[in-house]
Design brief:
heterodimer, A: 159 residues, mainly alpha, Cytochrome Bc1 Complex, Chain D, domain 2, B: mainly beta, ten-stranded mixed sheet, 8 helices, globular
Chain lengths: 159, 666
């Protein structure tokens, strides 16, 4: 019963937040009535990569310390309100192990393009059902996203 | 079933009768609105309007922004009054904006609007507005749609002929409606010593062309009359300014009668380039006065208020060749200059004609010294020598004129309740349409610039009466939009407005919408009390002052449990909104706060001062629906008696085990 009520809330919420037909650049494109929009059944959608500008991220086996430090500074300002560095869920999921759950492209696309991903991506939508708060667009630059990814790697034990 | 059908046909019959009866009445709204009117004002859901309309909020002290042609209210920008919807005048950061030399003034009267111009065309950077009661001029930033700056005017009272600008926004002017004894003179004099002791004052406020920052360059000391409205020359008449004035009788009581004695009052022509020369030559006198200058800093999200103590005055009695009076029939109100800069239209509100003056003829009359005498040392030009011609029988009570850029002018007629379109060259009336009721100002996009964009005229009526559903004795004011692309002006929409709109400006949305700020960058936030991330949140006690550095993000506050506040403390809540996306403000409200609430934009820090009035538990929460868990965005602050030893504690999400004995441990 609770679950039904919750999915009702989600549908309402998505419908309420989705629409704004005007802006060309609008990141919250169409309302995500998930049946219509979900790409789960769309074979051309790359669920590993997600939706966004990142198609191929080069990651070296060892840690780029400068990037990880820059990423940690952004984390403190823009991410730490909702994400712990352990596996404990706060508002959003804890970051421990995130780099093994998702590809770097998927993480960086989700971080920079959350609205479109939440409208389309099956894994993002599954997380929204658990967390119930749409991840805010924190207007990260491409470099910000890459640095945060490096910090996530550090958090996951890459040396 | 049959019965229902019968009922329906009776209703239909009744409707037909009603419509039929209505169509017999002349001039009602039913036949004033024709055919495709609805389609012309229709903007489909989700589509943008073509124009922004910046409309004075009159006695509300605020500025309203509408979309045209839909007439939809897009925003109310607080300027000269506190605004609970935005926290303006309530947050510690915005309070200094309403500071004056008299102290904090919570409510003023905003009259006129003027968009900044470059080369006589609207440039979409700033909007200037005036406070009429406690004389001030404000500059609004059209990137943030916020009040950026307010400057007070010394030696002034009733700042009515303001804030009109020169064609490159070099100056904003502010002329006094009330003449008064100057600030550095003794004002404790008999009121009927008006002629001896009362002076008019016109301030020329310099505008920095890069920052927009305002500074009073000089004031003109003028004869004691009532200055009413003004407009700058443009093109050929750039370098001149024109002010209408009434009460040249210099009455100090029952002006309704006593200031309506003369057949003609004046339009004062001001050669401001000449005034600049005198200023450079050091001919101004410095006077000791007191006025404030308030600036809002977008980086610190904080306003500052500075008191200034000196102004330079040029006395028009001693310094020749600055001012000239042009006789203008019957207490002129509107003073409007056509797009070419050649024609100056004075609207004598008690006159049955509209005089149109020629700039070339005024210049020739000055060169030939074609004067009929002087008024308080200022030459008075012969009426006929300045006049281009008169619009005969235009209607009753002409007030304001705007221009369509196609050689025509449109004038509002207050008494006969209509707008009248006339040709500037031949002075013949082309069209007249009723308005509902008694129009004051009117606005054509760019209608007082070199380049009007003449698709619509919007008329701001002074009387509403029966236009909308009754709402008790107090009614919204009625604005009306006319399509002016055809031969006949066509009424297409009524829309209600806030306060009482005086002047308005309109401009193509393309000039402004793409520059609109969507959020403030956290990296750029220089508020001294910012928390850049939850790691920086804290509660700091210094004696009785407690600073709470708190953040808001969907959907929690950090910290949200605070203990150790004591009676007698002065608590400052510094709320930083950590969101970095468009349209995600958070609100902040705490029970019993006498200082109101906050609304905090993404990336911004705002401060609420709070002095708890008794010990106890005080909940606080977010007032602006922010997410599915908005209702969970709440916290508690515990207030203990003065002198108690409750330790200062603050946390979020620590989930300490409940202390009370009735709780069930999970």
């Amino acid at each position: 019963m609770k679950k039904i009520i919750f999915s009702g809330i989600i549908t309402l919420f998505l419908a309420a937040c989705g629409g704004n037909n005007n802006a060309e650049k609008n990141q919250q494109s169409a309302p995500a009535t998930s049946d219509k929009e979900s790409t789960g059944g769309n074979p051309s959608y790359d669920a590993n990569r997600g939706e966004g500008k990142f198609t191929k991220v080069d990651v070296s086996p060892s840690l780029d310390v400068a990037k990880a430090t820059a990423g940690e500074n952004i984390y403190k300002v823009k991410c730490s309100s909702c994400h712990k560095l352990t596996d404990e869920k706060l508002v959003g999921p804890g970051w421990k192990g995130v780099t093994s759950r998702h590809s770097p492209e998927w993480i960086m696309n989700f971080a920079t393009n959350p609205d479109e991903m939440l409208n389309k991506d099956p894994k993002a939508q599954a997380m929204l059902e658990l967390c119930l708060v749409r991840m805010p667009n924190q207007n990260l630059s491409d470099d910000d996203a890459r640095n945060i990814y490096e910090f996530m790697r550090k958090n996951d034990g890459v040396k | 079933m049959k019965y229902t059908k019968l009922n329906l046909s009776l209703i239909a019959l009744a409707i037909c009768l009603l419509v039929g009866a209505n169509s017999c009445k002349p001039k009602n709204e039913g036949n004033a609105v024709t055919g495709d009117a609805a389609a012309k004002a229709y903007v489909p859901p989700g589509k943008y309007d073509e124009f922004y309309n910046f409309v004075s909020g009159g006695f509300s002290g605020q500025l309203s922004v509408y979309g045209l042609p839909s007439g939809r209210l897009l925003r109310v920008i607080p300027v000269f009054s506190v605004d609970p919807e935005k926290g303006y005048g309530y947050s510690e950061e915005t309070k200094p904006m309403l500071n004056t030399s008299h102290g904090f003034v919570p409510w003023d009267d905003l009259h006129h609007t003027e968009l900044s111009q470059t080369n006589g065309e609207i440039d979409g950077r700033w909007l200037f507005v005036n406070a009429n009661n406690t004389p001030r001029v404000a500059r609004l930033d059209l990137k943030t749609f916020r009040t950026a700056e307010i400057i007070e005017l010394p030696n002034s009272a009733g700042n009515h002929s303001s804030p009109f600008i020169t064609e490159n926004t070099e100056y904003v002017v502010a002329g006094t409606r009330f003449s008064v004894p100057p600030d550095n003179a003794n004002g404790d004099v008999p009121i009927n010593s008006y002629r001896k002791n009362f002076k008019g004052s016109i301030s020329f406020i310099k505008v920095d062309k890069n920052t927009g920052n305002m500074d009073i360059a000089f004031q003109l000391r003028c004869p004691g009359v009532d200055f009413d409205l003004s407009h700058a020359g443009k093109g050929k008449s750039n370098g001149w300014f024109f002010f209408s004035c009434y009460n040249t009788e210099q009455a100090n009581t029952l002006l309704e009668v006593n200031a309506s004695q003369r057949d003609k009052d004046f339009i004062m022509a001001v050669n401001w380039k000449k005034a600049e020369e005198y200023l450079k030559q050091g001919k101004g006198k410095k006077e000791t006065v007191k006025y404030v200058h308030n600036l809002y800093d977008e980086k610190t999200h904080t306003a500052s208020s500075e008191t200034k103590t000196e102004v330079t005055v040029l006395d028009t009695k001693d310094l020749k060749d600055i001012c000239y009076f042009i006789p203008c029939p019957k207490s002129p109100h509107g003073c409007d200059v056509d797009p070419t800069g050649e024609y100056i239209v004075g609207s004598g509100k008690l006159a049955a004609l509209i005089p149109v003056f020629s700039f070339d003829k005024v210049m020739k009359a000055i060169a030939d010294k074609d004067y009929i005498g002087d008024y308080d040392g200022i030459p008075v030009i012969k009426y006929e020598s300045a006049l281009y011609g008169e619009v005969k029988k235009p209607g009753l009570g002409p007030l304001h004129t705007e221009f369509d850029g196609k050689g025509n002018a449109i004038t509002t007629m207050f008494v006969s309740s209509e707008i009248v379109k006339w040709n500037i060259k031949d002075l013949k009336v082309i069209d007249r349409q009723p308005t509902y009721y008694s129009p004051g100002h009117l606005c054509i996009p760019g209608g007082d610039t070199k380049k009007p964009n003449s698709k619509y005229v919007i008329v701001y009526n002074k009387i509403t009466k029966d236009r909308y559903l009754p709402t008790g004795p107090e009614l919204a004011q009625a604005a009306q939009i006319f399509d002016i692309t055809g031969d006949k002006m066509q009424l297409i929409l009524d829309f209600p407005t806030i306060g009482e709109p005086h002047y308005a400006q309109a401009v193509s949305a393309d000039l402004i919408k793409n520059n609109s700020v969507k959020f403030f960058k956290l990296e750029d936030n220089l508020n001294p009390y910012v928390s850049k991330g939850e790691a920086e949140t804290k509660v700091v006690r210094k004696d009785k002052r407690v600073d709470i550095y708190i953040t808001a993000i969907r959907s929690h506050f950090a910290p949200d449990n605070i203990e150790g506040i004591k009676m007698g403390d002065e608590v400052y809540w510094h709320v930083t909104n950590l969101e970095q996306d468009w349209d995600v403000p958070h609100g902040f409200a705490i029970k019993g706060a006498l200082n109101g609430e906050l609304l905090v934009m993404p990336g911004e820090t705002q401060t609420l001062k709070w002095s708890p009035e008794k010990p106890g538990m005080y909940p606080f929460y977010c007032t602006d629906f922010c997410s599915a868990l908005h209702q969970e965005m709440q916290g508690y602050v515990r207030v203990s008696p003065a002198g108690s030893n409750t330790p200062l504690l603050f946390s979020t999400g620590k989930n300490l085990p409940p202390k009370d004995s009735t709780s069930i441990n999970p």
